[in-house]
Design brief:
The complex is a heterodimer of chains A (115) and B (112).
Chain A lengths: L2 E3 L4 E5 L4 E3 L2 E3 L5 E7 L5 E7 L5 E3 L5 E5 L4 E6 L8 E8 L9 E2 L3 E6 L1
Parallel strand pairs in A: 2-12
Antiparallel strand pairs in A: 1-4, 3-9, 5-6, 5-10, 7-8, 8-9, 10-11, 10-12
Chain B lengths: L3 E4 L2 E4 L5 E7 L6 E7 L3 E10 L2 E4 L6 E3 L9 E3 L8 E9 L4 E4 L3 E5 L1
Classes of the chains: A mainly beta (115), B mainly beta (112).
Chain lengths: 115, 112
């Protein structure tokens, strides 16, 4: 069965620090990969996605993620975080064409950015 | 203004009662999903529907039921058989072939 691991459950950073959140998945075939963000009191929203092509994808608000197929990873990065990046971040994977056609989510990473 | 609406935002229920959570979308999406979010557990799939009048169980369907009589609507009923129903419930709909999902604002259910 597919699974997604987010090893950082809580991350605390100061403003302007660099961010990297880990995401690993277990599936050997073609995958679609997503990072979602949930700001306090707001909808879960898409941060960025990878379907195919350039493995370095750029999303909203200066976030980017790199798909490394050999490592089954899709880590999220931001060079300099802001207080407004405080949120919960979820990695998700989908195997297109599968019978269930569903997203599998990681357990989430709570990021707190201190001003 | 397109989007997904869920109501109510907060819901309180006594043990032994069934309760229905509403989810409506005007995005013209075929597929809709219900997730449950618990602290430290991420989102877990309860039920999903890829087309009207059809739905499938997700990973944690026990104690829940759904219907999909209209494309726009996918209500979730939390029955008294659900052993631990207090949670945050999220509805989503799917756009496109790559399963990019859009989420509603959620309903927080508390069982007293």
């Amino acid at each position: 069965a597919q699974s997604v691991s987010q090893h950082n459950h809580h991350v605390i950073l100061s403003e302007a620090a660099s961010l990297e959140l880990g995401c690993n998945y277990s599936y050997g075939g073609t995958v679609n990969l997503f990072w979602y963000v949930q700001y306090p009191g707001q909808h879960l929203q898409l941060l960025l996605k990878y379907f195919s092509g350039d493995p370095l994808v750029k999303g909203i608000k200066g976030f980017e993620a790199e798909f490394i197929k050999s490592k089954f990873s899709f880590n999220l990065r931001k060079p300099s975080v802001q207080w407004s990046d405080t949120a919960e971040y979820f990695c998700a994977v989908n195997a297109p064409g599968g019978a269930t056609n569903k997203l599998i989510f990681g357990t989430g990473t709570l990021l707190a950015v201190q001003p | 203004d397109g989007g997904i609406t869920q109501s109510p935002k907060y819901l309180f229920r006594k043990e032994g009662q069934n309760v229905t959570l509403s989810c409506e979308q005007n995005l013209n999406h075929d597929a809709m999903y219900w997730y449950r979010q618990d602290p430290g557990q991420g989102l877990r799939l309860i039920y999903y529907s890829q087309i009207v009048n059809d739905f499938q169980k997700g990973d944690i369907a026990e104690g829940y039921s759904v219907s999909r009589e209209k494309k726009e609507s996918f209500p979730l009923t939390v029955t008294s058989a659900q052993k631990n129903p207090t949670a945050f419930y999220l509805c989503a709909s799917k756009a496109g072939a790559h399963n990019e999902q859009f989420f509603g604002p959620g309903t927080r259910l508390t069982v007293l």
